[in-house]
Design brief:
Strand content: 5-15%
Number of helices: 7
Strand order of the largest sheet: 4-3-5
CATH class of one domain: Alpha Beta
Order of helices and strands: HEEHHEHHHEHE
Number of strands: 5
CATH topology of one domain: Peroxisomal Thiolase, Chain A, domain 1
Mean pLDDT: 93
Largest sheet: 3 strands, parallel
Low-confidence stretches: none
CATH superfamily of one domain: Thiolase/Chalcone synthase
CATH architecture of one domain: 3-Layer(aba) Sandwich
Helix content: 25-40%
Oligomer: single chain
Distance between the termini: 32 Å
Radius of gyration: 18 Å
Length: 188
């Protein structure tokens, strides 16, 4: 295998949740950093939230309730990349198509809700979906199920280098002959 190409891109970011919006905002030198009310009382009161992110493009309200926000973002960006790439199941075997999405912390917002539920109301009030919503490979697994990818699949975590690491490992899967096609990226 001599060359590997990136054929689709998906994004959820403070500057836009589609490539055209992101590009326009980058060209105009806009900043996605804004005051964040959720940070009230903390030393830092600003951040870069993905304000225009809408998971309902690809999932209904029940699916949204069963996925942490990080997985919703990964699935949305991953499906955008997948559809932009024009991948066809007759072109690539589902057994040779893989998904590798990295995250530094996984479903932290799920823990933010479930830990107080446990402390205040006891273990019976903790959602049985806490573990699958929190773990770092849920984004990869959910995206793989949606595109019927049955090749290499995993989550990866390497701090701030996670997205790049996911791309590099995916490239290695292709170079080694373990996959023909990979959907890869990072999410936080």
């Amino acid at each position: 295998m001599n060359r590997i190409a990136i054929t689709g891109i998906g994004v959820v970011s403070p500057l836009g949740s589609d490539i055209a919006t992101l590009w326009d905002n980058l060209i105009q030198a806009k900043s996605g950093v804004v005051p964040v009310e959720d940070f009230a009382g903390l030393p830092v009161t600003f951040g870069g939230p993905a304000r225009d992110f809408d998971p309902s493009r690809y999932m209904g309200s029940k699916e949204q309730r069963h996925l942490d926000r990080y997985s919703q973002m990964a699935v949305t960006a991953g499906l955008d990349a997948y559809y932009q790439s024009f991948l066809k199941t007759d072109t690539y075997s589902s057994y040779r198509t893989g998904v590798l999405i990295g995250t530094g912390s996984g479903g932290i917002s799920t823990l933010e809700k479930q830990i107080p539920a446990f402390i205040d109301r006891g273990p019976k009030r903790v959602s049985p979906l806490t573990a699958p919503m929190f773990i770092g490979n849920t984004a990869s697994a959910e995206l793989a199920m949606r595109i019927h990818a049955k090749g290499p699949g995993m989550g990866i975590s390497s701090a701030c280098a996670t997205g790049g690491h996911a791309l590099a490992v995916s490239m290695r899967f292709i170079q080694s002959g373990d996959a023909d096609c990979m959907i890869a990226g990072g999410v936080e």
